Amino acid sequence: MNEYKTKFESQESVILAIVMSIYIIFSIYFFPILLVIAPVPFIIYGVKTDLKSCLLSLIATFLTVGVLFDSLTSLLLFLILVPYTLVCIYMIKKRVKAIKVVLYSASILFISILLLFSILKVGGFDLASKLEENFSQTLSIQMDMLSEMGLTTYELLEKRDSLRSYFETALMIFPSITFISIFIGSYINYLLVSLGLSKIGISILNIPEFSRLRLPDNFAIGTLIMLLTAFLIRWMNISYADSIYVNIMVLIGAFLFAQGLSVINYFLLKIKMKKFFRVLAYIFVFLTPQIILGVSTLGGIDIIFDLRKIKGAKSK
Hints:
This protein is mainly alpha-helical. It has helices at 2-29, 39-48, 51-68, 71-93, 98-122, 127-148, 153-172, 174-199, 219-235, 241-270, 275-286, 289-305. The protein folds into two domains: 1-123 and 175-207; 210-316, no CATH class. The protein starts with a helix and ends in an 11-residue tail after the last helix.
């Protein structure tokens, strides 16, 4: 029986490697965004079997991609996705809370990407320089278009300074925006993994409904540590101090906003507001900067006082 099971799992591993090789090459050529959910089948397979079987399938997949497409691209994707995939499998098998799986796996993926770009920078590839170069080209095209519209020299210079200011701000907060994007991708992946495992009769801890979404209990302590670190970095005048401080503040604000929006959703559902009006309320929140700040503050209050009284509740 065990011999049959091992043979069947080996066949599954081979089939998974073949299918995912085709999927990854197709994604690279046509829809790179699809690479975001590439780890999902491997995570499902790893939870069903074990880490070793999943790792072997990952190695086979990226070796195939390297042979059929490009070895460097395959290696880079392998270094980025494998730690994330294995951490997800390990934490799911250990029955870690869903929101922690999402947060910690996203952190692992973010660190992997940072390390990779650090290695590439040593090799001569500088992402910031590439972005600056692309922006300069885009700015030049934009200025030519505005010039043809008959704007005065003063108006053109003002527009150029405004665009450059936007770019510098975007470049400064690029790391935090990247992490938030990775977190959202990790959230989607967990939902897909949960759905896939349920189809084969394996249940895992589900992500709570949005109205009951709550950041980990130690988030408040982590926030205080990050804020203290940010202030110390600025006080010591360390290189990139302002950039580090701004990115920390953006991250904290984004997570507090998510929890604050969850609190609002909870109480809107409690008063049985119709979905149409709830959607209008969310649109109004996103379009009003002052309210966004208030929602983030509400999220912070909920962390401290547990306004919904769901602290410690099990994931549904």
